[in-house]
Amino acid sequence: MPLELPELPYAYDALNPYMSAETLEYHHDKHHNAYVTAGNKLFEGIPNLGDTLEKIVVNAYKDGHMSLFNNAGQHWNHTQFWKWMKPNGGRDIPGNLEKTIEKNFGSFDAFRDEFITAGMGQFGSGWCWLVMEKNGKLAITKTPNAENPLIHNQVPILGCDVWEHTYYIDYRNARAKFLEAFIDNLVNWEYVTELFEKAGK
Known about the structure:
minor pseudopilin epsh fold; single chain
């Protein structure tokens, strides 16, 4: 299954001032594209690992094809990351998801603080996540490098990239300010809700 670089669902400058056109162009056209290019080369000579990207990511990790996993995993992570953001995103959360967040974390503000703390607590490169556990509860996790919740039997419904290339042009080393901007102004809660409802079925 060849990997394909998706088009961004918005213009390069659509997320200003919270994520610049320079960052998006560099991140999508250079970094994401590099994962796609390397991943496709690494498929050569490896047995079929599945008919979906999710299966390929999980099976590459399970079977120890770590170079392929790193690139396919980052391709999956980034494909979702672009969808997890939108112009004029932020706090407008559909009711059922907001109620579940409040039930699981106590309040939206408590969730926000825990998500930012997870992102800050990821040493070096990685991701922070809002996931649905097997018991149906929501939880916040973090993973290093290309790892994602798929390989831990969790369903990711929101993720934030905390690799430095995500925020360094706009925020320099102020990762916390980027995470605050992401939660407060960029999250596409309609897409998060779509994943939440699908995971709950």
